[in-house]
């Protein structure tokens, strides 16, 4: 049984350390940012319920009992088949009573697809700033817009604390299909295994590679043809979405290299955004009206929004190639990715370019 007092002291100490680091390193405004982050994380930590005990409760619905049991199976698979650092992660559940757990704010210059980065004591520099309150996220986004930046704010249903805390299953992800839930758990656990501070694209592309292969193996073991078909269709659509957005991101980048005045640049930017929407409409027809990406395309399609897709996928082909070179062995793959993460940046970039 967990010693609650020791847990309280341990987690409070970790949150206090984060706050002290922020006080020592940054301005008063950012101290407030870290304070809300510490409060939000501790709310999750102290709202935990043990999943196994929930399963044993007589008043738990069959639907929830089945979902929790599947999560326990996914944890076991992640550890035994994928070699991921499961530990106590996803052995607890938290009902956070809102649509998303955090809201991330992304920003980029008006005429550049390179995202703005924010730097933190533990995670390093990343291309987003997260808030446990949507109102706070939108308030910060408005300030960035006043500074002339392209801004995008999106809700996030789960995240990794990089082993700082044991991550919990959140109510925000319960409505996902089982294979999607498995993918999320594999993805977030991968961050605890290899994480390169300051390189969002490296980290997210690596975790996405682990997620994709992990789900493929998990579905093969489950031997449910309907789930396999649904997952393959989902990933195929996702790849087509990524390819479309990445292609247009490159077109925007080419546009911004032209010697145009601001008015002409804005006009051509709007034209490209409309062309992107029209191509999505065509793609949607090929999907027989599937609406999964409608919400994303209903937004401005500005540079900050485009950058969110690049962060998760730009290096995915590279990591797939590394996995193949590792004879599809996860232990060898993790060892090689760890080696790459420890290389000097220039040497690592040269290796990435050689495999692309």
Overall description:
By secondary structure, the protein is mainly alpha-helical. It has a domain at 1-46. The chain is 62% helix and 8% strand. The chain has 14 helices and eight strands. The chain has helices at 4-25, 28-45, 51-56, 62-80, 134-146, 178-193, 200-222, 225-256, 262-286, 294-297, 303-313, 316-325, 330-341, 345-355; strands spanning 49-50, 92-94, 102-108, 118-120, 124-126, 129-131, 150-156, 169-170. The strands form three sheets. It has a three-stranded mixed β-sheet with strand order 1-2-8. The chain has a three-stranded antiparallel β-sheet with strand order 6-3-7. Strands 4-5 form a two-stranded antiparallel ribbon. Strand 4 and strand 5 (124-126) form a beta hairpin. The chain is globular and about 65 Å long.
List keywords for this structure.
mainly alpha, 356 residues, globular, 14 helices, three-stranded mixed beta sheet
